[in-house]
Amino acid sequence: xxxxxxxxxxxxxxxxxxxxxxxxxxxxxxxxxxxxxxxxxxxxxxxxxxxxxxxxxxxxxxxxxxxxxxxxxxxxxxxxxxxxxxxxxxxxxxxxxxxxxxxxxxxxxxxxxxxxxxxxxxxxxxxxxxxxxxxxxxxxxxxxxxxxxxxxxxxxxxxxxxxxxxxxxxxxxxxxxxxxxxxxxxxxxxxxxxxxxxxxxxxxxxxxxxxxxxxxxxxxxxxxxxxxxxxxxxxxxxxxxxxxxxxxxxxxxxxxxxxxxxxxxxxxxxxxxxxxxxxxxxxxxxxxxxxxxxxxxxxxxxxxxxxxxxxxxxxxxxxxxxxxxxxxxxxxxxxxxxxxxxxxxxxxxxxxxxxxxxxxxxxxxxxxxxxxxxxxxxxxxxxxxxxxxxxxxxxxxxxxxxxxxxxxxxxxxxxxxxxxxxxxxxxxxxxxxxxxxxxxxxxxxxxxxxxxxxxxxxxxxxxxxxxxxxxxxxxxxxxxxxxxxxxxxxxxxxxxxxxxxxxxxxxxxxxxxxxxxxxxxxxxxxxxxxxxxxxxxxxxxxxxxxxxxxxxxxxxxxxxxxxxxxxxxxxxxxxxxxxxxxxxxxxxxxxxxxxxxxxxxxxxxxxxxxxxxxxxxxxxxxxxxxxxxxxxxxxxxxxxxxxxxxxxxxxxxxxxxxxxxxxxxxxxxxxxxxxxxxxxxxxxxxxxxxxxxxxxxxxxxxxxxxxxxxxxxxxxxxxxxxxxxxxxxxxxx
Length: 733
Ligand code: BGC
Fold this sequence. Notes:
Elements: H1 5-17, H2 20-26, E1 28-31, E2 33-35, H3 42-50, H4 56-64, E3 67-69, H5 72-76, E4 82-84, H6 88-101, E5 109-112, H7 125-129, H8 134-150, E6 155-156, H9 180-195, E7 206-212, H10 231-238, H11 240-247, E8 252-255, E9 259-260, E10 263-264, H12 269-279, E11 285-287, H13 292-299, H14 305-315, E12 320-321, H15 325-335, H16 341-357, H17 368-376, H18 380-393, E13 395-399, E14 411-415, H19 441-447, E15 451-455, H20 466-474, E16 478-484, H21 505-513, E17 519-524, H22 532-537, E18 540-543, H23 551-559, E19 622-631, E20 635-644, E21 650-660, E22 671-680, E23 685-693, E24 699-700, E25 706-707, E26 711-718, E27 724-731
Parallel strand pairs: 1-4, 1-12, 4-5, 5-6, 6-7, 7-8, 8-11, 14-15, 14-16, 16-17, 17-18
Antiparallel strand pairs: 2-3, 9-10, 13-18, 19-20, 20-23, 21-22, 21-26, 24-25, 26-27
Helix pairs in contact: 1-16, 2-15, 8-9, 8-18, 9-11, 13-14, 14-15, 18-23, 19-23
Bound molecules: beta-D-glucopyranose.
Residues 113, 157, 210, 289-290, 492 line the site of beta-D-glucopyranose.
């Protein structure tokens, strides 16, 4: 995000004209509040919607009779600078009040959670990251930005780039998984996709990277929980995606709910001022998460509202999301001298800079023809991209006796209530989707012309329908069971202590296996699951995540063999609950898990990762050989021969890892440093090359200083983080 001299002058001249109240107004973000009520409290309505007492249609009808309060009076009086909303016509109307009726005519910025698409919902981030496809990361973000604008949103609360290693945390679904390198590539491409298409003001948005910072390290995987770690851990694991996003010019960042080493990230001057603004050079502004400022009191970090505001603003938090406390307390804090005017000016300058950079002063409105075009339906290219993204995100975990791919002559017995559901496929934080755009797995098979009969039987919640199950046991040549989680079992406030298949789904699988027919489990879920039993009993397992609106078509494409599975895991799968957290890039202990009792393991369960990071099969097999490592002045050059040794075409994700064998701080047993998607015909062989800058082989110490230490390194190349070829090399920097 770079401003021209003229744009900077515009910001300065506005600042000079603003009263303190107007400045504070710019630092205030509100969400639309619902007016008109329903005669029933909102929380109860939410419950009724969840437990089925209200259908989606009934909810839609209720919503038609209600209205949203866009805080028009506050906008007119310059007391509000930003709104969370996604109705383009209401946005235009409220924007008109801001740019015509407020004293300084400063446009509003509208923000929204466009995490994995707006109306075109793409796969959840955890799934998309597993495509290891940088171009795809960028392209889905570019399309999401365009659609956001059509909905009146020019500030996307995305990308969510929390490195997360504990599958119990519901929010693993929203981010790119456990690895800082992959998460950084994901972050950088998302920022480019969201922000860089400047060919038209309707094509780009301001990104809001989140949640800053270390939210993914919440203790025990429990949402909102405390985090505590050494500086080196913060710098090596949790900061890299934010560093990458800031280097691409990310326009804003959202402070996370957690405290880090005792200081809530909302009011943490070390992370906000010292690191985010000074070191990573955030060009735009920092916003709290919802109600974050008020929660500093609950944390026990601020005595009261005034104290929370003073601590937050002085720490460098520029905008208040939803606690209303900047508007209530900030003026007196400035008047008493607890907050300096220059801190306020810095915050407002940052916020105005983003508004100017977005072109809002010249183009405040969503053009009517853009709104209408999306009302008509989705552009074909967005649907095609959603299908491609979904295909590339599917991970084949097991395929005993080549059960897959299926062929069109086989009669498919499709079971599991998730299979016929066109709503669960969108996953958490899907906001603008329409049911009519969504393709269930059942519809996907039908569209593909497969011979399919559907028996819902049971799902993640509720009872088993014995009649349906009896009929299912009688039908078909092959059973495809879609099992997993509902969309609200992951995402915010959805941490789980038990991450095995919920409800009676395992029992259903057992009964299906008794038929002796081949069973394919298609998993639809928003986190890694503990699948020890399934991995032992089920012959074929496909991790299909929540793939967005084209899920059904993509699953049919892959299961019927029209498209080869090519996704890989961005997050390791544990065998059992008690193993969490598991991740491949852990430091070694002095006693790594082994046969001896006195090694780092559990005495009652396995310690090994079930499916490791980077893992995924294809309908063919790939063989790696001849790893060569060549040292040049500033970089290492690696090459390996990769051969498709099976009888089908396929796409492999070749992965480069390193290990710093001995260092002044213990380094991970493996660290991803590069990847390439390679498509090979059956029998084809190719040389795959990687180059690694020596500069990228270092790490941060406990002072946050990047160090490069001479010595022995291991270089690994392979198709996942476990099965690799290895060469050693001594490197001098
Ligand atoms: C979430 C954020 C989100 C915000 C606004 C919060 O509860 O933690 O990720 O952007 O709400 O919707």
